[in-house]
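# nightly structure sweep
# worker-07 picked up a monomer target from the shared queue
# config: single-sequence mode, recycle default, output format = structure tokens
# input follows
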Amino acid sequence: MAIVYTKHAAEMLIFRKIKKEFVEKCIQNFDDIKPVREGKKAYLKDFGKNYLKVIVSEEGENIVVITLYWIAKGRVKK
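# output follows
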């Protein structure tokens, strides 16, 4: 599967200073995955101080990244 970024997600990579390598690592080697509304999934990966949360939808052969952001560890529900 290929990882594709929406325009918004590409802008958030820059705005939030998140490397694409982190997003790819989060999707390919996640710590947790949760369903979110209407066929979308939230991938979570522990990067030490914070978790990276990546919201995606699967469209055919592609994983489409919709948005991404850091979450403080204390805010993540297990």
